[in-house]
Amino acid sequence: MKIYVVGLGPGGADQLTPKAASVLQGCDIITGYTVYIELIKDMFPGKTLLSTAMTKEVERCEIAIEKALQGNIVAMVSSGDAGIYGMAGIIFETAQNYPEIEIEVVPGITAASSGAAVIGAPLTHDFAVISLSDLLTPWEKIESRLAATAQADFVICLYNPSSKKRKDYLEKACDIILRYQSAELPAGIVRNIGRIGEEYRLMTLGELRNTRVDMFTTVFIGNSQTKIINNKMVTPRGYRY
């Protein structure tokens, strides 16, 4: 009995790791969020595909456990890396009463690293990744984390920066960071990473505050050392050259 928790990376077949592809090819059943199943269904024809809607994560895990107990090899897919804002944690929690089920996490390329590669090299020094979604984390805690990382001069990567219900969350996040950092700090956004329509824009932190983004966007905010070099965002590591 086995469940693999597989990170798909940004979504394109060329950014799916060889191990992830091998696991998905070898499993009996692939389950996941509907959008992610749509991304891969043509890559693995003939597979049994089971999907659930957003916010149905526990139900998704229960389906995977049920199928594994029936003797199937099951793959639960997540975008990016399954252990970074993905399904790895909840599958361990949900399956804790089924020690007979072996769980293996197969890592993938998360949006911080794939987006950083598009925009330049913003993460070559200490950085923090923060999700602006308050669906599972109170906004007050997100505020305190933003303030702490800004005050400590970390490069900041923001996931889930906006949605229909959270249109002003990026603006609010920028206002918190602006208490400790200059409005001229380099910043940038990457949209549709690794997918059709991929694009990025560079700007200042002050300009970012008034920029509209969506859930397909990953935001990068530099630290006091970050600079723009030939239209790319770069945070020096400190090497002499």
| CATH superfamily placement of the largest domain | Tetrapyrrole methylase, C-terminal domain
Tally of distinct domains: 2
Q: Radius of gyration in whole Å, from Cα?
A: 19 Å
Shape: elongated
What is the share of helical residues? 25-40%
Oligomer type: single chain
H/E element order: EHEHEHEHEHEEHEHEEHEEE
- At the first level of CATH, the class of the largest domain is Alpha Beta
Uncertain regions spanning at least 5 consecutive residues: none
- What is the straight-line distance between the termini? 54 Å
Q: With helices defined by DSSP (H or I, 4 residues minimum), what is the helix count?
A: 8
Strand fraction equals 25-35%
Strands side by side in the biggest sheet: 3-2-4-1-5
The CATH architecture of the largest domain: 2-Layer Sandwich
Structural class: alpha/beta
Arithmetic mean of pLDDT: 94
CATH topology of the largest domain: Methyltransferase, Cobalt-precorrin-4 Transmethylase, Domain 2
Total DSSP E strands:
13
Largest sheet, strands/sense/barrel: 5 strands, parallel
Written account of the structure:
By secondary structure, the protein is an alpha/beta fold. It folds into two domains: 2-109, Cobalt-precorrin-4 Transmethylase, domain 1 (3-Layer(aba) Sandwich), CATH 3.40.1010; 112-234, 2-Layer Sandwich (Methyltransferase, Cobalt-precorrin-4 Transmethylase, Domain 2). Helices cover 29% and strands 26% of the residues. The strands form three sheets. It has a five-stranded parallel sheet with strand order 3-2-4-1-5, with helices on both faces. Helix 2 (34-40) links the parallel strand 2 (29-33) and strand 3. The termini are far apart. The model has no long low-confidence stretch (mean pLDDT 94).
